[in-house]
Every structure is written in C-alpha cells, then in structure tokens.
Amino acid sequence: MEYKILSGIKSPDDVKKLNEQQISVLCEEIRECIMLTVSKNGGHLASNLGAVELTVALHRSFSSPEDALIFDVGHQSYTHKLLTGRFDRFSQLRTENGLSGYMRPDESEHDPFITGHSSNSISAAYGIYRAKRLKGENGTAVAVIGDGAMTGGMAYEALNNAGNGKSNFIVVLNDNKMSISRNVGALARSLSRMRNKPHYHHFKYALSRFLLAIPLIGKPLNSAVYSLKESIKGLVYKNNIFTVMGFNYLGPVDGHDVKTMEQLFNIAKTYSRPSLVHVITTKGKGYAYAESSPKNYHGVSPFDIDKGASENGETTYSDIAGRTLCSIAGTDDRICAVTAAMTYGTGLTEFSQKYKNRFFDVGIAEQHAVTFAAGLASAGMNPFFAVYSSFLQRGFDQVIHDIAIGGFPVRLLIDRAGIVGEDGETHQGIFDVPFLTSVPGIKIYSPCCYKELEYCIKKAAERDEICAVRYPRGCEKECLDADFSAEYSVFGSGSKAIITYGRLFSDACEALKVCENLCVIKLNRVFPLSDSLIAGLFKYSEIHFFEEGIKNGGIGEHCAARLLEKGFQGKYVIHAIEKFVPQSAVSSGIKNCGLDSESMIKAVGGECDE
C-alpha cells in the first residue's frame, strides 16, 4: 500500500508541519499500517487503533525527545513508533531482531523508558521530569496511562507524590473504558461520571483559550481565574480524585479530535501545577471487528483483515486450567477464582459465568490479588489466583508476607511460565521459580502436558498447602506418560542423566530416542526436591539439568547444592537461562537458549540429524 503522508514522516517535527486535512489522512494511513502489520505479525491491535489521534496530538503539542513521552504498558505505542522515524522498520514489528511491541530506549531516543508492565508510567515520567529540573534542562515529561492501568496501586503512589508541589508535569488519562477485560470497580464508575459532564468543560477550555490570547496579562489572569474557580468549586462541589491529589483536572475531551486535544495540551503546559488531561477514546477505532469486540482484539495472532480474527481452535494450557477449575468448583463450593484483569487470557471466562459469586476480577492489581486470596484462604475458602508469570513478580512481597508467613493455602496458577515469545524481555516467565523457591513452605509443580495440569490442579484443591502450578503459553507437546503421583519419574537406564521438568520434558523425550546410555528424569514435584531423588542421582557419572528459567536460584542450582552437600563426584552441568530473553518465536527462543532437543543431544555427546 502507498502511504502518501506517513511515508514522509521521519520525525515528530514533520507531524507539526501538516495541515488539518493532512492530519486526517495521516491518521487513516496509520490505522491501515497498524492493521496490516498486526494482521501479519500479531500484536496489540485494539489499544493501538484507539490511540492514533491522541498520539498525533501529543507529538504536535510536545517536542520529543526534549519532552519525554511515556506510554504506560506500551501496547498503545505503535503510532508513536511510526511518528518517530521507525516507519521503514515497522513491518518487522515483534519479529526476531525487529522492532519491539513496547517502548525501548535502545531502539529510539524517543523512547525514554522501557515499558511492558502496567501502572509505572507516572512514576517513571515524574522521575524524568524531576531529573530535568535538577539538571537545568528544558522540556517536560508526559505520562500516557490507560484507565485499565489506573487500577494499579503504583499509579496512585505516583500521583500522590507528583501532586505535592509546583510543576508543569502532565498525565494523560486515555479512557477507553477497557483494560484487557472490561474495567471493574469504583474508579470505573467515577470516570463514567466525569465523562457525563462535557458541556461544562467545553466552556471552561474556551474561556482559558480566550484569556491566554490576551497579550502580557493573559497567563497570570488565567491563573487567577483558575484559582478563584477552584476555591468556589471546593466550597460548593465535591472534588474528583485527581484534584484532591493536587492535579489540575482537564477533561473529558474527545480523544479522536486532534485539534481540541492540542488546545487542551497547550493549556495544560501553562499551569504551574501538575495537570491530568482526561481523553475519551474508542478501543479498536476504525476497525469494526475490534470496535465491537475490543477484548478479543487486545492481543491477536496473525489474522485475515477482511474476515476478522478468529479464535484459535486449538486447546491451550490456559483452557485446561479454566475447565479444570470449573469442574472442581461444581463439587466444592469453597473453590474461588481470582484474576487481575486477565479473565480471558487465563482461561477463566467460563468460570466467571458459571460461578459469578466465587469469581473475582480485581483489576490490574496483583499485589491486592495475592493478599485478597490470602484473606479468602484465612476465612476457609479455597482460592486459586490465575496470573501470568511475569505479572506475579509484582506480588512477590505479598506471597511472602501475606500468604507464606501465615501459612494460608493459596494456590497460584502461573500461566505463561517459561519463554513466551514475541512480547520479549518484559513478559518472559523465567523468574517465578527462583523467587518462589526462596519462600519457606511452598510447593511447586510444572506439568508437561494437559493431563498432568489437570491432575495438579485437582490435587492442589485437596491439599491444605501453599502451592504453585506453573504451565507454559500455548499447546502441549508430545511426551512419554509419567506417574504424576510420584515425586519424579525415570525413563531409560544409561549412566548419563538429563533432569528436567515442564515443557522441556518433551524435548528430553526426543533426546532419549536417539541417544544411547541416556536416562531422563522428570520432576513431577519441582520443589522441594525429594531426598530419594538426590540419593538416586549418585549412580550417574554425568548429569545435565535443563531448565526453562533463570539459572541463578533455579532448581538446577538447588539440586547442585544438595548433591555437593552429599559429596557427589560426577560431572554436573546446568543448562538454563542467564540473560533477559529477547523477542522471537517461542521455539526460536528455546533453541537460542540451548534448551531444545538438539542442544540436549549434543550436551550428552549424542548425534542428531542436521
């Protein structure tokens, strides 16, 4: 496709030169480019389509990189990439060695901070703003945060800090009434009330523009009128949450009207106090399928634009986890499911419909979710918290303080464990095992197939213990049958051994087919390691531990320490991850980390077909 305007945008300065008609064409071309690219590469579609005009207005009102623009999470930053000199590389979005799906400082000077997880943009942007003031630099910092990310407590910690003092720091609230699942809670209701008062705000902005246009006295006069208005309003009306926290609230405004947003951003820059600009956008704007079903077009695999994205017909680990929970909830009314704005992603849609009273979507608030689950458990319920591995990182303190110390039997269903693929470093689920093994009293399971996942979840419901059941993204791979009730299973009878767990057991089975003198040991209970396992390892002259997770603190190191204590004299090698894993297909990521079947065969001195 020919992009008459977009192809000529080499920097944000080029956006500022366009007239109103050219801006309209640019926005159409951006949407077309995003849809074509995501339809081929997969990615975040609805959120990016909704933020096109907003991003254009930001780059016309501010001067990146002097003014730092930080998009929370980053899955609304595709337009930002296209406007900051990355159009020629955009077709490589989310591919190995291509553009990231999120903001990356090593990718462009216009990306001041790495993003990927929600609710950190205000903290980062305010830190950058303060650094600029300390160094005497020009420019400001702008945090662009969605209403879904505003359910994360960190956002309010940052607002509380940034609202305390004089500054022209700016927060833009992109309100599309959605996070990944539909927003829930008091904040969503509050924002809805604000959205219902547009006429008052239109008059207010027109007055501000008029006052600011008066030579010499316009700016101080506007500030004086604002101060008087706020004093009167404070006596007559209740303030909203943002004004209470020290922010000048501007909005709501149509997030698809570039001219009006520009005017509002320019007004915000004149204030000597922090401002929050509230814009209303439509998630999936411009693509009928995404507008009508934004949650299904949040993150998508490659699809046909004309037909729309169809649901993957293959059963996934997430599907099995959700179905199993539904099954046991039907016979045990103490079973509860908790999620942090990931109902669909973690396979809990059916549970949310069948057992509404025992289903809890707490918003993007993993810390709260963990402690909430601990509260449920302390009062006699059987809670399961379904969460992506990389997102559980935010609840680590609560796992220790609120679950483990009290001994409350919360069950963690850790989805997307291991390498997840194209989302890259910020989303790889490779840290949960090391940080969970440091918590006394926890038991960890990592199924290799659907049948074992179902077994683990059912047994977790029966046991009065803190446990984590971790499983990968996607579908199961073929592997040998194991006795899941045993702490570990042994296959083969060689003098060399491969120890592994989870998805990698399938690769070990492939190695076993072609390698002589090899034994494969599958850990059914990953942690703690059993005494009988350690004792049984002494008969092997060479042991290779393959682990789809970070090496430091991983099960391989725990096993090595136990063997060393007992005086093991044989060869022991840990094959695990020692760096952040960049974006690529899952299979490529596993191979690049030396964890695939071919790497296993070579490690034990076998031969494999090239």
Short description:
The protein folds into 3 domains: 6-288, Rossmann fold, CATH 3.40.50; 317-470, Rossmann fold; 489-603, Rossmann fold (3-Layer(aba) Sandwich).
Q: What is the count of distinct domains?
A: 3
Can you tell me the CATH superfamily of the largest domain? Thiamin diphosphate (ThDP)-binding fold, Pyr/PP domains
Overall mean pLDDT: 91
Strand order within the widest sheet? 9-8-10-11-13-12-17
Largest sheet descriptor: 7 strands, mixed
Strand portion: 15-25%
- Secondary-structure-derived class: alpha/beta
CATH topology of the largest domain: Rossmann fold
Residue stretches low in confidence (pLDDT < 50, at least 5 long) are 178-184
How many individual β-strands? 19
- Give the radius of gyration: 27 Å
CATH architecture of the largest domain: 3-Layer(aba) Sandwich
The CATH C-level class name of the largest domain: Alpha Beta
Question: How many angstroms separate the termini?
Answer: 40 Å
Helix content: 25-40%
Query: Per the principal axes of the C-alpha atoms, what is the gross shape?
Result: elongated
The total of helices stands at: 25
